[in-house]
UniProtKB/TrEMBL annotation:
CDD domains, per database record: HisKA
Name of protein: histidine kinase
Catalytic activity: ATP + protein L-histidine = ADP + protein N-phospho-L-histidine
Location relative to the cell: Cell membrane
Organism: Marinomonas polaris DSM 16579
Signal sequence segment: none
């Protein structure tokens, strides 16, 4: 490039020198110089015209013949054009391949803008959800997938967990919906047929519920006989007395286990759910703490900090189970003399119920697993504390029903804080008596 520039300048200067010589010879220096400058200008303009003309006609054909710097410019632009066309072709091919592979996917893929207006979907998504091209393009997805769960999931952007719904287009088909936000909060939605998994899961739930229910009757009979034996315990040999005490303790544990399993099944099944209502948090917690008296035996101090006006919208029984599990755990896993702080705090964003103990604490690696069924940090401790290993699984399910989240903070040796974060629309701070409630999960809006 440098050489071309040098040659161009040298040629132009040589021309200028020649003009000066000719001008001096014929005695018309100014006239000859003016002619030379005008000639040069005309030449440049002509090349520019050629260049513009070639570009206007898409620049696909070979560039016009030109020498010097203009020839270089033409060639460089032509090469750039060729390169661009090539990468455009490659991109178009890649796009076609992506489109045809997503079309062939068994999973449904949907692209919707940040308002949920449908932009693109593959054949599987059309099949699962009954989407039709082109009529449904631009429609809001919640107008097409008409399910209350899906509406809540989509409008409240609960994309952390996948949602399972019945297919609106195919009878007996269950779909798992997973949504990711991308770019300017646009929606990328994956739809998967999970009918087989759903039926298996249903079978598992039914089995646990039925087995637990069936175990209740024989256990009641065993407990009845044990109670009778307990009355005549003193007349029996020492070794048998110990056996009876042991059997009574274990049957109590088994009864608690069955109760917890049945409660979990009810929470999972979603039907037969108690209707939601506004409850005074302080009353609910007082009922629980009164029930703790037999296990407290003055060894622990409970410190309550719950404003009387705090109210929470939900199912009384479920909230009772969740809060009591947290409070009983705090007592169970705190050494004698420990203090347990039970608190309710609310802001314009949420309401937080927390139980803080100064007990054993939990190692960070165990925290993510605490809400798994039958998970215990110390396997041996379960039988001593009388726990079933289901308490925190129950808490998790109850909170899920109340759009709430469980937060666990703990430090081994220093204690733990379990907090339940409820959304603002489920909490209020006033003395208005509990008012009418709807049948779905949404709290009345007149507070
Ligand atoms: P469990 O019936 O065994 O108490 P949970 O599901 O309620 O079952 O709790 C699971 C495990 O989490 C417990 O076995 C215990 O190891 C641990 N855990 C729960 N709460 C606390 C707490 N407040 N302090 C220390 N560990 C706890």
């Amino acid at each position: 490039m440098k050489t071309v520039w040098r040659n161009t300048i040298i040629t132009w200067l040589a021309g200028l020198a020649a003009c000066i010589v000719i001008g001096l010879v014929i005695g018309q220096l100014l006239g000859v110089l003016l002619l030379y400058v005008l000639g040069s200008l005309y030449w440049q303009l002509y090349q520019l015209y050629q260049f513009h003309n070639w570009l206007r006609h898409s620049g696909r054909a070979a560039p016009p013949e030109a020498s010097g710097i203009w020839g270089e410019v033409f060639d460089a632009v032509y090469r750039l054009h060729k390169k661009q066309r090539k990468s455009k072709r490659r991109m178009r091919q890649a796009l076609t391949r992506i489109e045809s592979s997503t079309t062939a996917l068994k999973e449904g893929v949907i692209m919707a803008d940040n308002q949920g207006n449908l932009e693109w979907w593959n054949n599987s998504a059309a099949h699962f959800l009954g989407l039709m091209r082109p009529v449904d393009r631009g429609q809001v997805i919640t107008n097409i997938v008409r399910s209350p769960e899906f509406f809540r999931y989509f409008s409240q952007k609960r994309f952390g967990e996948p949602l399972v719904i019945k297919s609106p287009a195919k009878d007996g088909v269950y779909l798992e919906i997973q949504t990711t936000l991308y770019d300017k909060n646009d929606h990328l939605i994956f739809v998967r047929d999970v009918t087989r998994l759903h039926l298996l899961e249903q079978m598992r739930k039914d089995f646990v519920a039925n087995a637990s229910h069936e175990l209740k009757t024989p256990l009641t009979v065993i407990k009845g006989y044990l109670e009778t034996l307990d009355m005549f315990k003193d007349s029996l040999p020492k070794s048998m007395q110990k056996g009876i005490v042991n059997m009574s303790e274990q049957s109590e544990r088994m009864e608690q286990l069955i109760e917890d399993l049945l409660l979990l099944s009810r929470l999972e099944s979603n039907d037969k759910r108690e209707e939601n209502q506004w409850h005074k948090v302080s009353d609910l917690v007082k009922t629980i703490t009164n029930a703790t008296t037999p296990i407290l035996t003055d060894k622990h101090t409970l410190v309550l900090d719950i404003p009387v006006e705090a109210r929470l919208y939900g199912s009384y029984k479920e909230l009772y189970s969740a809060f009591s599990n947290l409070i009983f755990n705090a007592i169970k896993y705190s050494p004698d003399g420990g203090e347990i702080a039970i608190k309710w705090e609310s802001s314009e964003f949420n309401g937080v119920f927390s139980v803080k103990d100064s007990g054993l604490g939990i190692e960070p690696r165990y925290i993510p697993r605490l809400t798994e069924r039958f998970f215990r940090v110390d396997k041996g401790r379960g039988s001593k504390t009388g726990g079933t290993g289901l308490g925190l699984a129950i808490v998790k399910h109850v909170l899920l029903h109340h759009d709430a989240k469980l937060q666990i903070r703990s430090q081994p040796g220093f204690g733990s804080t379990f907090s339940c974060h409820f959304p603002a629309n489920r909490t209020r701070n006033d003395t208005i008596p509990a008012i009418a409630f709807n049948t779905d999960d949404t709290p009345p809006t007149d507070q």
